[in-house]
Amino acid sequence: MNGKRLVYLDNAATSQKPNKVIDAIHDYYTQYNANIHRGVYKISERATEEYINSKQKLADMVGASSIEEIIYVRNTTEAINLVALTWGEMNVKKGDHILISQMEHHSNIIPWQMLAKRNDAVLDYIELDDNKAGLSEDSFKEQLDKDPKIVSIAHVSNVLGSINDVKKITKLAHDRGAFVLVDGAQSAPHMKVDVADLDCDFFALSAHKMLGPTGIGALYAKREVLDKMPPLFGGGDMIKSVSMQTYTPNDLPWKFEAGTSNIEGGIAFGAAIDYLDGVGLDSIRKHEKKLTEYAIKSLSEIDGVRVFGYGPKETDKRGGVVSFSIRGVHPHDVATIFDSDGVAIRAGHHCAMPLVTGVLGQGSLSRISFYLYNDIDDIDKAVRAIEKVKKIFKC
Ligand code: PMP
Predict the structure, then answer these.
(1) Does ligand 1 lie within 6 Å of residue 154's CB atom?
(2) Is 351 a catalytic residue?
(3) pLDDT 10s digits, 1-43
(4) Three-state secondary-structure class, residue 138
(5) Whole-model pTM?
(6) Is residue 272 lining ligand 1, measured as CB closer than 6 Å?
(7) How far out from the chain centre does Cα 341 lie?
């Protein structure tokens, strides 16, 4: 980038893709391009098999009991909207409460705002703790007293990096009869997730943040929950039979996948899961923890740079996300100067305006975020770019 080695530190936005994933897309189109579920010929059978294998790999990876619990959607956003539009429509009525938190991505805010508006329900927020590092337990318990129908929480914040104890949250929410959705967009790519152990009812993720292609993601949901949910879209593939006036929905998970699927995306996602399995999610987590520790230490030592106040200090409570501000410099200027050094970072409200502008009181923040291919040298390059920013702005 700009004649320099690319230092990619915007992994919370999307990840780079291994050749294996790109090859999987190429192989599908050049060797067995056909629609799935329909053909009795070889290449259609192969495409169907690869697509289903991908779901099995994901089910194994996140601890789902079978592929019946894995719905392929476009991304985390679509997964959450699907729940709000189907389960939400059935279960959230006038005056009911929906509980989210102040650290949510817009994807886990707007679908609930829309549902609340449609059905005259109330949207409540769990507040952050005093250090702006995690969720306040007192606030959570206070909100739970309102008996929300659903609690929908990010597993890992894309701004603060905070890892929320979603297992404990789920237990407490279930004790009050609430359902639980975990937004796993920032956890599934970076750490071992076990939905059975978490016991959450729904878990949403995006393939593009975990080495896979864009346009494919997944909603995990408990089988008994999915059984009671109506399909969101009607059309081909989601039916067992159709008459003039009515239809019988297909078995799970196909009941929720109307029309031709993102076949290449599903297959390539399978290749991404193979890659992640090969490296090991525990190793990835360990590696990112080291990078995060080094980044927090390096950045916090620079005069005028603020890291604390934007997430936990302890790396066992934090994913590989470090937001920061430089006194007197707009984050967009920071990101532009970084870019001139070949360092790609994100600046802005990170699709979490209620958190960044509301709670943290910042117009925007700069953010570096890591993945398995980053190293210490990448962070040193970011530190040098900060020094360049300070020189240019004389601060
Ligand atoms: N939730 C969180 C915590 C995220 O970080 C993101 C992506 N930045 C999303 C949801 C939305 O993901 P997508 O755009 O892939 O739907």
Answers:
(1) yes
(2) yes
(3) 878 899 999 999 999 999 999 999 999 999 999 999 978 899 9
(4) helix
(5) 0.98
(6) no
(7) 29
